[in-house]
Amino acid sequence: MVRFPLEDIRVIDFTWVLAGSHATRLLADLGAQVIKVESKAKLDGWRIGYGMLREGVTSPVEEGSGIFQQENRNKIGLCLNVTVPRGREVFERLVKISDVVTANLSPRGFVKMGLEWEKLREINPRIIVVSMPGLGNWGPHSGFITFGPNLQALSGMTGLTGYPGQEPVGVGTPWADYLAGMTMATAILAALEYRQKSGKGQFIDISQQEACTSVLGSYLLDWEANKKMRENQGNHHPAGGAAPHNCYKCKGEDRWCVISVASDKEWESFCDVLGNPDWTKDTRFATALSRIHNQEELDKLVEAWTVNYSPEEVTQMMQRAGVSAGIVQNIKDIIEHDTHLRERGFLVDLKLPHPERKPQSVILPGVVTKFAGTELTIRHPAPGRLGEDNVRLLKETLGMTEEEIARATADGAFE
Amino acid sequence: MTKEDTALEDLRVIELANECGVYCGKLLVGMGAHVIKVERPGGDATRSIGPFFQDDPHPEKSFQFAYHNTGKKSITLNIETKGGKEIFKKLAESCDVLVETFPVGYMDSLGLGYASLKELNPKLVMTSITPFGQTGPNKDYKASSESIPLAMGGLMFTTGEQSTPPVQVGNFLIGYAAGIYAALGTLAAIHNRRFTGKGEHIDISMQECVASWLEASYIRYQYGNGKITTRFGSKLLSATPSGLYPCKDGYFCVTGVGRWNLIVAWLVSEGIEVGDLADPKYETMDGILLVDHRGRVDQLMCELGTKYTKLELMIEGQKRGVPVTIMGNAKDVYEDEHLKARKYFVEVKHPVLGKLKYPGAPYKMTESPWRIDNAAPLIGEHNEEVYAAMGFSRDDLVTLKAAKAI
User: A177 an active-site residue?
Assistant: First the structure.
């Protein structure tokens, strides 16, 4: 029988929106049993996410938005209010038999929910508790409210993206959320390794700001040592390692390709593809260095050629000749035309429950951490309905009797 | 702190990784793993990536190398020579993890692919990072630049303004993404190995790293009748005010999701005329009515920006519960009071670069701390130590050097 890498790990998951939910989604994709805890008072805001509900869904409590579905796939859903006594009781029973408790609430919200490691370790000394507010759990700015774009700007990456001398443009996805989530999942696995040999759980304090700033090391050291401030590079090579190196207009509306020529050998092949027009023999483009110095003019000449072809054609011709090139794919290209992603099993066509709601299935990005020996994929959709797995969890996992469940219900534990 | 306190003290890692995989090794070494970086004789190619100390393009002065290789050990080895191959096999036999970023099939062509190494060490976890992965029709696509998988993964198309060409993301972001996914997969495989007794080959595609970060685009296209997400500058399609606005000394970033009432109060207190936009009907969580007035909202934020610096705006905005941050540069990051208070920066002493403050731990653990106590190694700094531990004498090293193996 196939063993999923983390199938022995149980996570009690208080994360919400994107960064935290992404972290526990990665663990769930790797096989962990992730119990997503929500309550009526503390619904995941992403149930509404961009208003993208399926046709036929009348309330986000019935089924979360598409984004919610995506970030909570492979998880199971528990509706539990841990702030009422009998809800807390259920939570503590769960802590006894779990490995990890996760949250990306504000530091205040985290304490209000009573998730502190100091408390939970009394119940289970092996428990690993992770809290990932935007700016960490302590420090002068720890109460700051931030979203992905805020952290991207704060870390310095936003200032490096765009065209030189023009207004900054931001990045076309909230990458900070994803990066922080991935970092959190990695930290949890390290803590599990530590527990393996020490028998001890621990508390992990993650500041999304720090997780993001850590991917700007060499740029920061340039300032620290040289007092040099790098400006954004547009589409040229960030370390001056290749020219031509740009995004070029192609035939069609809003169609683009990228080309990167890193060596003299690649330059020769590149010129061959273009049919060696006279300008390619110009002394301004004779060496790698001169091509970098004259790349603005070079870019114009390259684009005068690429506009005659589709990005698919340019990519084919260049790749056949051993030159780095690619299509600037939009989402339609990825979903409908990228046979490579499909053949690798990266794109997953997930059938959704309730066939009366439209669409009935959705194509989603699969698992990036691809194991050659174990197929990791989307095993089941997200727990759409609030508290979808309550009965199963309370009876089977916790062994609660009907009577205990009824008492807790009367106390408002499952609202 | 004793060394035993680190999380991955027992993990032995061999790394042959370029800029797209080097962050994986950095994460592992930070958690205590023993990472041996195998460099080609003369030094790893990433040593030629800038920026450089005092702008001197010397292989011991690359910040790209210095930052990403803290705590690792360096040996030189030419795995294309017969002697080098044998040494490499010995290394692979006794390690837990091999991280590599060679083109698909290169290791196989040397007889050092996963299938061969698995025979020598069935518990080996081999983690391969490539632009397009180990399988599929585009696996041999050439990508000498990160911009190729970035474009093919879909993130370039959505970055920039609609009126200008798509633009790449600064500072090798996708290499970092690949490095973190690689570390995640590696640790999951190490965990799994305890139950199965077997290693694993992990196949990270940089294109997939990017393509998994665009979930809203997937949903918008499929729930929204084929709507293609395009470039929208720094703004959010679904919220206003959002993104970057100019201020006295640069830019500040606002994410105005569900907080219009707080923003209105702030604007009014500054004497900025809000007009009918102060109507409570605009205060919905999804901001659905407000986005129709995006232009006017943006103007109001620009007006606010003319009065203050980015830092003043962040402090005042946060005090009022509005998610505002500065758009920082390297200087701002080093001067960040919060990072300072949290002791994020760590001083590292390097024989050539001297003492510098490096960005520190990406997370803080109470029991098994992050380690950044050693600077990046010099080229082949640990040849003698590592090769001696493998049983080679000094004479052997001379012979191997003459044969260009090390």
Answer: yes
Q: Taking CB atoms and an 8 Å cutoff, what residues of chain A touch B368?
A: 190-191, 194, 198, 202
Band of pLDDT at residue B406, cut at 50, 70 and 90: confident
Question: Which of A218, A233, A265 is best to mutate for the B interface (most B CBs within 10 A)?
Answer: A218
Per-residue model confidence as pLDDT tens digits over B365-381:
999 999 887 999 999 99
CB-based contact B202 A369, cutoff 8 Å: yes
Write the pLDDT tens digit of every residue in B198-231. Answer: 999 999 999 999 999 998 999 999 998 899 999 9
Contact A51, B288 (CB under 8 A): yes
Task: Tell me how close the Cα of B385 comes to any Cα of chain A, in angstroms.
Answer: 27
Q: If you count residue pairs, one on A and one on B, with CB atoms under 8 Å apart, how many are there?
A: 525
ipTM surpasses 0.85: yes
Q: What are phi and psi of A255, to 5 degrees?
A: -110, 135
pLDDT at B22 over 50: yes
Could A329 and B151 be called an inter-chain contact, meaning their C-beta atoms sit closer than 8 Å? yes
> Which residues of A are less than 8 Å from B363 in CB distance?
183-184, 187, 204-207, 210-211
Contact B64, B49 (CB under 8 A): yes
B111-118: long-range contacts, CB 8 A cutoff, minimum separation 24: B111/B85, B112/B79, B112/B85, B112/B88, B114/A372, B114/B201, B117/B89, B117/B92, B118/B199, B118/B201
Res. B4 pLDDT band, cuts 50 70 90: low
Q: What is the DSSP string of A58-73?
A: --TTTS--HHHHHHTT
Paired residues of B250 in beta bridges: B247
CA A197 to chain CA centroid, Å, is: 30
Picking from A144, A206, A362, the nearest residue to B363 by CB comes out as A206
Question: Nearest CA to CA, how far is A204 from chain B (Å)?
Answer: 5
Of the pLDDT bands very low, low, confident and very high (cuts 50, 70, 90), residue A48 is confident
From its phi and psi, is residue A310 left (phi > 0), alpha (psi between -120 and 50) or beta?
beta
Confidence band, pLDDT 50/70/90 cuts, at residue A246: very high
% of chain A exceeding 90 in pLDDT: 92
Peptide bond into B51 cis (omega under 30): yes
pLDDT, tens only, B39-57: 999 999 999 998 999 999 9
Q: For residue A107, give the nearest of A139, A149, A71, A151 by alpha carbon.
A: A139
- Write out chain A residues lying below 8 Å of B147, CB-based: 235, 245, 247, 258, 260, 326
Contacts of B226 in chain A (CB under 8 A): 332
- Contacts with A67 from chain B: Cβ below 8 Å: 215-216, 219
- Distance between B83 CA and the closest CA of chain A, angstroms: 30
Residue B39 tokens read as: 């460099």
Chain B interface mutation, best of A220, A339, A360, highest count of B Cβ atoms under 10 Å: A220
Q: Which residue has the tokens 């023999």?
A: A281
CB-based contact A178 B177, cutoff 8 Å: yes
Q: Is the pLDDT of residue B61 over 80?
A: yes
CA distance A33 to A74: 8
Pair A71, A21: CB distance under 8 Å: yes
Instruction: Considering the candidates A177, A205, A299, A389, report the single residue annotated as catalytic.
Output: A177
Read off the pLDDT of residues A5-35 as tens digits, 9 standing for 90 and up.
Answer: 999 999 999 999 999 999 999 999 999 999 9
**Interval A110-158: pLDDT, tens:** 999 999 999 999 999 999 999 999 999 999 999 999 999 999 999 999 9
Of the candidates B305, B216, B172, the one whose C-alpha atom is nearest the C-alpha of residue A167 is B305
Backbone angles phi, psi at A76, to 5 degrees: -120, 155
Question: Cα(B55)–Cα(B52) distance, rounded to whole angstroms?
Answer: 5
Indicate yes or no: CB of B143 within 8 angstroms of CB of A343: no
